[in-house]
Design a protein that fits this description.
Layout (H helix, E strand, L loop, with lengths): L2 H11 L4 H7 L3 H10 L26 H13 L8 H19 L5 H11 L16 H14 L4 E5 L2 H10 L1 H5 L5 E3 L18 E5 H12 L13 E4 L2 H7 L18 H17 E4 L2 E4 L4 E4 L2 E4 L3
Parallel strand pairs: 1-3, 1-4, 2-3
Antiparallel strand pairs: 5-6, 7-8
């Protein structure tokens, strides 16, 4: 599906969304995508401020080192990465080159359009439907880079700890090109106390339950699991899984208490009394009676028996 077909379908599906309609009108979104893909795109932020003359080459010729140099400058000048579409165009062009160096593939039109739509949401959230095979993990990693370069902590919520660990490992080299670190929050061993190493990274992958557990450990159990990490940006993979399939799941902290095993005998006695209770309750002349003694019925009378 080419870019014109994608934009046509996007407009049909979102005819009641004025933000998206406005982006599509007058080929604005189309022009942004084409500018990002231009082979002669030169960085306006680095051509005069970074000394190396090679950085004045088009972004499509940049190396890993040049991308890292650009990323350092961007992180030191937060105003260069505000959600202005002109700045976003350059940022996505650099990320496109980084993705090519890392994977050997170019970003697709669908991936670039998805990122532009999300980044144009300003302070609102966005919910996107991305079909299987269209590079959902790639879109997520692009958004994570942009927010992390702004100095934000990014939490990427996956549908399982296995996927979190896999995606974190697969994207390490891609994030490193921007001098960013990522990890996953899956517990590898029995956690005790103190900040988990993963939360010192700018980007953390994890299942929603693990984020819940670590938040409870920090705020309820006072174990300082999150350290100084703040809740800045959340990117949810498989939204339907979290909000529908797993909506009834909750996270609770549980731990053993010394001496609880000594109560086992008491529990057995209580259980025995509860099980035998129905046999001791009788109804007679419309009233209920509890008889601990052994009893029987004769001629509509209750007879207590010797034990």
């Amino acid at each position: 599906m080419n870019i014109l077909e994608i934009l046509k379908k996007l407009g049909e599906k979102n005819s009641d969304n004025q933000d998206i309609v406005k982006l599509i009108e007058d080929n604005h979104l189309h022009d942004l995508v084409e500018r990002i893909k231009k082979f002669d795109f030169v960085s306006k932020d680095t051509e005069t401020n970074i000394g190396s003359s090679t950085n004045r080459n088009s972004i499509t010729k940049w190396t890993r080192d040049q991308i890292q140099e650009w990323a350092n400058k961007i992180k030191n000048c937060s105003n260069l990465i505000e959600h202005d579409l002109e700045n976003i165009v350059e940022i996505l062009a650099v990320i496109k080159q980084a993705y090519l160096l890392d994977s050997g593939f170019h970003l697709t039109d669908a991936q670039i359009i998805s990122c532009l739509i999300i980044l144009n949401a300003k302070d609102k959230g966005r919910l996107l439907q991305v079909n299987t095979g269209e590079g959902k993990s790639t879109i997520i990693s692009i958004l994570a880079v942009i927010h992390a370069l702004k100095g934000k902590y990014v939490d990427i919520i996956t549908s399982s700890p296995v996927l979190a660990e896999r995606d974190a490992k697969e994207k390490v080299n891609f994030y490193n090109m921007f001098n960013l670190e990522c990890s996953h929050n899956k517990d590898k061993q029995n956690y005790q106390t103190g900040p988990k190493a993963c939360y010192k990274k700018q980007i953390v992958y994890g299942e929603v339950a693990q984020f819940q557990f670590d938040t409870l450990r920090t705020e309820y159990a006072q174990l300082n699991t999150l350290g100084d990490r703040k809740f800045n940006i959340a990117i949810v993979d498989e939204v339907d899984s979290m909000l529908i399939d797993d909506s009834s799941k909750i996270a609770r902290l549980a731990t053993t208490i010394a001496g609880m095993d000594q109560l086992q005998l008491i529990y057995h006695v209580i259980w025995h009394q509860l099980v035998s209770l129905p046999e001791k309750i009788i109804k007679f002349e419309g009233k209920s009676y509890l008889l601990n003694e052994k009893h029987s019925f004769h001629d509509e009378k209750v007879v207590l028996e010797d034990t």
